[in-house]
């Protein structure tokens, strides 16, 4: 798992921040462990950056057989875990599930902001 942060200048004195999360799980147990660690880190990042934390971009690298499960698990976590649901409410979250050759299996948003932007892209 890798987590990186980027900033974008907005006007003369303001900045917004984005977190980029990449996960390449070996199996479902490893995926759950990585999501747990990433979730804690993202909650801390949001707490530290506040309203300036605008975007989370997640990439899950897995084989095609695991892709539907990866999407379902991640979506369930953001919908059913109160802290993660609050994060999804206040942050634009976009997710891509791909394989090592960058074949896209799923490209979706999480939460109201993420889903709205994915609909605009279509």
Tell me about this structure.
By secondary structure, the protein is α/β, with parallel strands linked by helices. It is about 45% helix and about 35% strand. It has 4 helices and 5 strands. It has helices spanning about 30-50, 65-80, 80-90, 110-120; strands spanning about 1-10, 15-25, 55-60, 90-100, 105-110. Strands 1-2-3-4-5 form a 5-stranded mixed sheet. α1 (about 30-50) crosses α2. The longest helix is centred in the N-terminal third of the chain and has 22 residues, at about 30-50. It is globular. It starts with a strand and ends with a helix. The model is unreliable at about 115-120 (pLDDT under 50).
Descriptors for this entry?
5 strands, five-stranded mixed sheet, 4 helices, disordered C terminus, 122 residues, alpha/beta, single chain
């Amino acid at each position: 798992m890798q987590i990186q942060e980027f900033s974008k200048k907005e006007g003369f004195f303001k900045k917004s921040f984005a977190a980029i999360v990449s996960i390449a799980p070996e199996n479902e147990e490893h995926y759950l462990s990585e999501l747990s660690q990433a979730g804690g880190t993202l909650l801390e990042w949001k707490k530290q950056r506040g309203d300036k934390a605008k975007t989370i971009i997640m990439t899950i690298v897995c084989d095609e057989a695991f892709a539907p499960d990866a999407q379902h698990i991640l979506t369930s976590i953001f919908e059913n875990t109160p802290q993660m649901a609050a994060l999804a409410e206040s942050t634009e979250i976009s997710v891509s599930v791909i394989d090592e050759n960058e074949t896209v299996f799923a490209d979706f948003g999480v939460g109201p902001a993420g889903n709205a932007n994915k609909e605009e892209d279509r």
